[in-house]
Design a protein that fits this description.
Elements (H helix, E strand, L loop, with lengths): L1 E5 L8 E10 L9 E9 L3 E5 L6 H8 L7 E7 L9 H8 E4 L11 H12 L3 H14 L15 H13 L5 E5 L7 H16 L3 E5 L3 H7 L2 E6 L2 E7 H7 L1 E7 L6 H10 L5 E2 L6 E6 L2 H11 L6 E8 L2 H19 L1
Parallel strand pairs: 1-5, 4-8, 4-9, 6-7, 7-8
Antiparallel strand pairs: 2-3, 2-5, 9-10, 11-13, 11-14, 12-13
């Protein structure tokens, strides 16, 4: 695999990492855990990597941050600072942090001792070490438990310590492999809020999770993996805008075929009628102008409409649709 560090103007001007056709197969496996995956990670944004267990999410993160070496493909890093470009390995060590699924600290040490140890690895200056320690404790809301042993902490605080250790080196790019797994909803939201703050500070986040509501809240772009392949790549805001729908229910005694035909003609071609119940109509909407046209038609015969519900397709729907399409293709191939 080729890994290059380039000035940003040689990549897309907003890109910080660009990967092309990455492939990786573990020893003794007869299949690729990552299979010709390409992606573009923009500076200051959050990329979500989603998919079922075994899809290749953790392997892809390991390839991007240098823990694994791909058999094929290329990764290009933009220069991560206004200085002479560093080697790929030096760029990783200085500007990139990984927050793994597993706890990455010493359980017998306190929070403060853990942070002091990891900070000393990357920062030799004692004064800066103290500043980084205070910053990490404050940022992750750990100051009041700093003297507690790590193994005595709740799951939520252990996850915060994992994040604090990564932040203690002041990274520009942060890889997060399911950072909220196994914790309660309040702790999960605290961590999501922290990640939103990091994003607002201009940090670049690459994030895996099975919690699709988190992905929708945090991420700008997503990539959906299935058996090592990228089966969907999308911009979340575009997905929401381009996947609007109106669900209509008509009074049984006031179904107007001509009115329904008008609505269907104004909507996107993929609109659906519930075959089991003629009272229900689902209209797919491509854009705002189409939505306005449909609502204008609706206003002409409001008396026949029992209920109207407007919705934007969620990431859940994108996930299920893409996965269903993949399974259908497999069935056809069989």
């Amino acid at each position: 695999m080729d890994i290059n560090v380039q000035s940003e103007n040689k990549l897309n001007h907003t890109s910080i990492i660009h990967a092309k056709d990455l492939s990786f197969k573990y020893p003794n496996n007869d299949y690729y855990s990552v299979n010709k995956v390409s992606l573009d990670i923009k500076r200051g944004q959050c990329l979500g990597i989603i998919g079922p267990n075994g899809a290749g999410k953790s392997t892809l993160i390991s390839l991007l941050c240098g823990l694994l070496k791909a058999e094929q493909g290329q990764v290009d890093f933009a220069s991560l600072a206004d200085e002479k470009p560093l080697s790929w390995q030096a760029s990783i060590e200085k500007y990139v942090a990984l927050i793994p699924q597993e706890y990455a600290f010493y359980p017998e040490l306190s929070i403060k001792q853990n942070l002091e140890y990891f900070i000393a690895i990357s920062e030799p200056n004692r004064k800066k070490q103290k500043q980084l320690l205070e910053q990490a404790l404050n940022q992750c809301q750990l100051t009041h438990v700093a003297k507690q042993k790590a193994d005595s902490l709740s799951g939520g605080y252990k996850r915060r310590l994992n994040i604090a250790i990564a932040l203690s080196k002041s990274p520009e790019v942060i890889f997060l492999d399911e950072p909220t797994v196994g914790i309660d909803p309040v702790s999960r939201q605290d961590i999501v809020d922290l990640l939103e703050q990091l994003k607002a500070q201009g940090k670049t986040l690459i994030y895996t999770s099975h919690m699709l509501n988190e992905v929708e809240q945090l991420c700008d772009d997503i990539i959906l993996l299935e058996q090592g392949k990228a089966i969907a790549v999308t911009d979340i805001s575009n997905n929401q805008r381009q996947n609007m729908q109106i669900n209509l229910e008509f009074f049984a005694d006031k179904i107007n075929a001509s009115f329904i035909a008008q609505l269907n003609s104004a909507a996107s071609p993929a609109s659906e009628k519930d075959s089991s119940n003629e009272q229900h109509l689902r209209l797919k909407v491509a854009d705002i102008s189409q939505l306005q046209q449909i609502m204008q038609i609706v206003s002409q015969d409001m008396s026949s409409i029992k209920s109207l519900h407007f919705a934007q397709n969620s990431i859940d729907q994108l996930y299920f649709d893409a996965y269903k399409n993949t399974q259908s293709s497999k069935d056809v191939a069989c």
